[in-house]
Design goal:
The chain is α/β, with parallel strands linked by helices. Helix content is 33%, strand content 16%. The strands form two sheets. It has an eight-stranded parallel beta sheet, with helices on both faces. A two-stranded antiparallel sheet has the order 8-10. Helix 4 links the parallel strand 3 and strand 4. Helix 10 packs across helix 11. About 6% of the residues have low confidence.
Length: 353
């Protein structure tokens, strides 16, 4: 079987359908000046979560940092100020004059659909009015998308590029209870059906290394997230940006309706989290090699049209407890790509088997 190479630009031979080159291809197809670099600007919109404010629980998810897993996000009363702060922060890495940079406004911290719909509208639309912002990504919980919020998301999806990130984390409800997620797999299933029924792209978050989960349990979560969603009766709605999948050269489609993207997080135990207090000695993976082996096994069962938005961990070194090596993001990524070439494998090689 011939390997799928998802991106060959810049001398790369990527065997993973990573979101960055996907976006580059996508916006080039729409006529955006090429070459372009699409950069996410991480925002803290000032929201909270229903398992922090007592609506469903307190203390937040056990693994969540004090910032609501938005440690890199910029917070400001004014969304424009927060965007400018992120642009300045990233300007050394991605100078706009060199890369023709465009931006996605990424509402990252806490639950970004957990507020009155008019507050959400004001913040989302303020972000989209900023120059060079060409789309929006919204991270939330699967149990926090009431109908009026779904209607707003559908409206935004008609006029801009949008995806919604859902924090599933695991399909195993016993793990979800132990981690104080305060939502279930059934909540996730309902949210996916309703969002995709409106033509809205869904990116699913999974965490690898949660306490009590075996290798096979983690791979079961990956298989489940990548399954055929099926149809949603009477959901209706359309999108100015087609809900059909767009593919990088060399990949194909089996015609099955699936999520748009996947985030595979390595569990990081961080200071200030409930896990740091309850399980201070817990180490998710004994070595980088153990994590890479699991991650590649997961990638092999992910269908090739699903975009990968994260394949490692990303906690600030100052707050990281374990694994002590997980801050070495570039080393981890380089070793993943190197090992995939060594094994002559690729994303989707075992999908459906």
């Amino acid at each position: 079987m011939k390997p799928i190479i998802f991106d060959k630009s810049d001398g790369q031979q990527l065997r993973i359908n990573m979101i960055s080159p996907w976006l580059k291809h996508h916006y080039a197809e729409l006529g955006l000046d090429s070459p372009a670099k699409i950069v996410k600007l991480s925002l803290d919109g000032g929201f909270t979560c229903p398992n922090r404010d007592g609506n469903k629980g307190t203390g937040g998810c056990l693994f969540c940092s004090e910032s609501g897993s938005g440690d890199m996000a910029s917070a400001a009363d004014d969304i424009r100020q927060a965007l400018d702060s992120q642009i300045r922060l990233l300007s050394d890495k991605w100078p706009s004059e060199k890369y023709n940079v465009k931006y996605l406004a990424y509402f990252q911290s806490h639950t970004n659909t957990y507020a009155p719909v008019e507050e959400l509208r004001a913040k989302f639309e303020a972000a989209l009015k900023a120059s060079d912002v060409v789309g929006i990504a919204i991270a939330t919980r699967p149990d926090c998308i009431p109908k009026d919020v779904l209607d707003l998301l559908s409206e935004l999806n008609e006029k801009t590029f949008l995806w919604v990130e859902l924090g599933l984390q695991t399909i195993h409800d016993e793990t979800a209870r132990a981690m104080n997620l305060c939502h279930s797999r059934a909540d996730y299933d309902d949210a996916v059906r309703r969002l995709t029924g409106r033509g809205i792209r869904v990116v699913t978050h999974l965490i690898l290394g949660l306490p009590g989960e075996s290798r096979e349990m983690m791979l079961d979560s990956v298989r489940y997230a990548c399954r055929d969603i099926g149809t949603d009766d009477g959901a209706g709605g359309g999108s100015g940006f087609s809900s059909g999948f767009s593919f990088c050269p060399g990949s194909g489609s089996d015609g099955v309706r699936r999520i748009f993207g996947l985030k595979l997080h390595m569990l990081n135990v961080v200071r200030g989290s409930g896990m740091a207090a309850a399980m201070p000695d817990y180490v998710p993976f004994d070595s980088m090699e153990e994590y890479i082996d699991l991650l590649i096994s997961a990638l092999e069962i992910v269908p090739p049209e699903i975009t990968l938005h994260r394949i490692s961990g990303d906690a600030p070194r100052a707050t990281l407890i374990a694994p002590e090596w997980s801050y070495k993001k570039r080393t981890i990524l380089n070793n993943i790509h190197k090992e995939m070439r060594r094994r002559d494998t690729w994303q989707g090689r075992l999908a459906g088997k």
